[in-house]
Amino acid sequence: AQSVSQHNHHVILSEAASLELGCNYSYGGTVNLFWYVQYPGQHLQLLLKYFSGDPLVKGIKGFEAEFIKSKFSFNLRKPSVQWSDTAEYFCAVNSDNFNKFYFGSGTKLNVKP
Amino acid sequence: DTAVSQTPKYLVTQMGNDKSIKCEQNLGHDTMYWYKQDSKKFLKIMFSYNNKELIINETVPNRFSPKSPDKAHLNLHINSLELGDSAVYFCASSHKGMNTEAFFGQGTRLTVV
């Protein structure tokens, strides 16, 4: 069965620290990959997406992610986090065989001021 | 303009009651979804509709009945509510297939007492 794994369930960082959140998926076909962010009490918002082309994608608020096909990974990075980045981060996968967006279990990021 | 709107935002009800959540999107998408987010923030697909036709039903109890009067609306009716139904329910929409992202509504926090 297809799955999306986020290995970091809870990450605590100080402001200005660098961030990397892992995401791995298990599907061998063509995929679209996403990172969504959910601020406390809010809905999911798209941070960035990968459809094709350059495997390094840049999103909003200084986030970027790299698609490594051989590793089935799409890790999220940010060089310097801010307190306002405190949120839940979800990796998601879509493919034409899924007919849905399949989400990982989420990573809770706490940034200490 | 709100792209995907859900009503109500909060819903508190007693066990055994029947309730509905409404969702509307003005993005011109042909596919709509219902997701359930539990207390651990895990997002699970419940239903997916394309052009008013059900294409995914992820082993959801038949107390949950989605209805899509047109492709811009996907409502969720829940019969005989149980304590375990307490969660945040998100509606989302997208174009069908690949190279599309999902847009989410604000969520409906359902509390069954």
Largest sheet of chain A: 6 strands, mixed
Taking pLDDT < 50 over at least 5 consecutive residues as the criterion, the unreliable ranges of chain B are none
* Tally of DSSP β-strands of chain B: 11
| Succession of helices and strands of chain A | EEEEEEEEEEEE
How would you classify the helix and strand content of chain B by structural class? mainly beta
Gap between N and C termini of chain B = 34 Å
What does the radius of gyration of chain B come to?
13 Å
Q: Please tell me the overall pLDDT of chain B.
A: 93
Distance between the termini of chain A: 41 Å
**Strand proportion of chain A:** over 45%
Principal-axis shape of chain A: globular
How many runs of DSSP E, i.e. beta strands of chain A? Answer: 12
Strand content of chain B: over 45%
Low-confidence blocks of residues of chain A: none
Question: What is the count of DSSP helices of chain A, taking H or I runs of 4+ residues?
Answer: 0
Cα-based radius of gyration of chain A, to the nearest Å: 13 Å
What global shape of chain B is seen? Answer: globular
**Main structural class of chain A:** mainly beta
